[in-house]
Amino acid sequence: MGGRGAPDATRMLVVAVVGVMVAAAAVLCPAPAAAGKLGKQAKALVAVKAALHDPGNALWDWDLKFGNDPCHWNMVTCHEGQIQELSMTNKNLSGTLSPAIGKIRSLRYLLLHQNAISGPIPDTIGRMKLLEVLDLSNNHFSGSIPSTLGNLANLQYLRLNNNSLSGPIPESLATDALMIFNLDVSFNNLSGHRPAFRTWNVFFEGNPFLSDIGSESIAAPVAPKDVKEEDLQFMSKSIFMLLVCIAIGCSLVAVVTGAVLFWKRRQRERVFAVADVHHDPEGCLGHLKQYSFQEMRMATNNFSQRNILGEGGYGIVYKGDLPDGTTVAVKRLKDHDSVVGDDQFHTEVEVISLAVHRNLLHLNGFCVANNERLLVYPYMPNGTVASKLKECVDGEPALDWAKRKRIALGASQGLLYLHEQCDPKIIHRDIKASNVLLDEYLEAVVADFGLAKLVDHWMSHVVTSVRGTIGRIPPEYYLSGHASEKTDVFCFGLLLIELVTGRSTLELHENEFDKGGIIELAKELLEQNKLSMFVDRKLGSNYDSAELEEMVQIALLCTMYRSCHRPRMSEIVKMLEGGDGVAEKWQAMKDIEEPNPDSSSEFVCIGINYDVDECNSIELQAVELSGPR
């Protein structure tokens, strides 16, 4: 017994010593687990790039020669060292999507829409258990929808519309992927029956071989043989009472609906009376032309992908050529429910069309056909501010500092008109560089105004009642869902930051700034007199330092946490026109305590008083009103 105990003790001592040494080594020389994982994911991205055709060289830095950390690669977004998002929208990509995509297990957002990628959808996507948003729409994907997508327990938004997919819709999407809130498989070649999903936000149109059988049928209950007679009588009475309640409810709904329709018709008559709007035999609605769907199909070459100018939250915009030689932009509104009907759409379009200002995109006409709603606008040859900020001509930025200042002023004047000159006033709710167009003279033209109000009436499945772009939604709007003029002011402040920085996204790069977001970074660089680090590098030193400082100060005033601390658009226009006092206003506001978003305490709105009389000092000049663009 004693002879065997000594070796055992020695062996245990050796194991303990080795364990301590291993632990010490782990502390002193930690294994690069995260780096190793990123290295594997970098190789996966290289494989994805190899299967794609990239004529625009959008994926130029997806190469291991740039290191094993893809978090610094283009269109890759990371959080805490994990790849969270791949956003390759409208990059003219073709080829196929490699199954290697499934190796990026930390991915939450995969956005590949509006390209020309073909081939099958890899079933390996089903391995990315954290995936929340998968958008492969408007490509050329073929084959069947992988049943493995049902394994994605966190998937909320799945968009596969406008592809060439065939075969059935996997039952697993309805039975297993229980978090799906929005599913769009429209305009494919799918067949079989429609599974019964738990959400209303499912879109099947454009699949002629897809059957309704099995999707919404409700079997009549059959009583088991061993149910007692009194139970059957109770069930009968209950069913009778339920039917009575349903009848009463339907009657109430009919009465309320009738009253609403009557009120809406009176409202429409009032709008038409104000605008002197009437139908005429040539298909016009007042100054608006009503186009046929066939005309729109011919103008856009059957809504060809080659004619796509851009895509936003409300629809896809196509370039169109009318028979008379006029070039137009056709916005094909998407994801709508046509229950409201044509009259309501006409009314809301008319309200939008009454807003006429040189810095607002004028509406030429519209089209209503079956489930289609289209808006026809003038074509803006210079695209969006967002796209123009990226361009260089002969080594110089397409938008120099003077042009950026003029764009800021023009956009603010358009918003001022919407807020203070329209009746009823219009809140845009999504001001950003991609929603501001440029005409032939590079003048700012605010687009998509009024669409938030328009679609709220007949879009039944919006992602959230809060409209806007993630990361650009003001705190009070995000928390309460109530928009105001100050909602637009906040977003306008971020537009100014876009003009200053030239950034395609306002998200900061990893390790760029650890004390907050882009607003906090701007404030710190302003206080440290280091705004040269903030300005767009394409500008070099070709900007006015004093004007840059004022622009950033205005942007920070616009993005104050409390809406009552932000100026009105009339005050912003005055500051951008060169009115004095920008620095003084910023000095008065910069130390106002900003509330902790996690705190429930109330904060009193104190600080600078934006004079009401001063706000009304800017009158609508005749030159600001122009004929239809």
CATH architecture of the domain at 386-624: Orthogonal Bundle
- Sequence stretches where pLDDT stays below 50 over 5 or more residues: 1-7, 12-34, 213-219, 221-228, 267-286, 454-470, 597-604, 611-629
Query: Which value, in Å, is the CA radius of gyration?
Result: 29 Å
Briefly, what CATH class of the domain at 386-624?
Answer: Mainly Alpha
Major sheet strand order: 2-3-5-7-9-11-13
Helix count equals: 16
- What structural category characterises the helix and strand content? alpha/beta
The CATH topology assignment of the domain at 386-624 is Transferase(Phosphotransferase), domain 1
Distance between the termini: 102 Å
So what's the overall shape? globular
Helicity level: 25-40%
Write a structural description.
This protein is α/β, with parallel strands linked by helices and 629 residues long. Among the domains are: 33-211, Ribonuclease Inhibitor (Leucine-rich repeat, LRR (right-handed beta-alpha superhelix)); 386-624, Orthogonal Bundle (Transferase(Phosphotransferase), domain 1). It has 16 helices and 25 strands. The strands form 6 sheets. The protein has a 7-stranded mixed sheet, with helices on one face. Strands 15-16-20-21-19-18-17 form a 7-stranded mixed sheet, sandwiched between helices. The longest helix has 47 residues, at 229-275. The radius of gyration is 29 Å and the shape is globular.
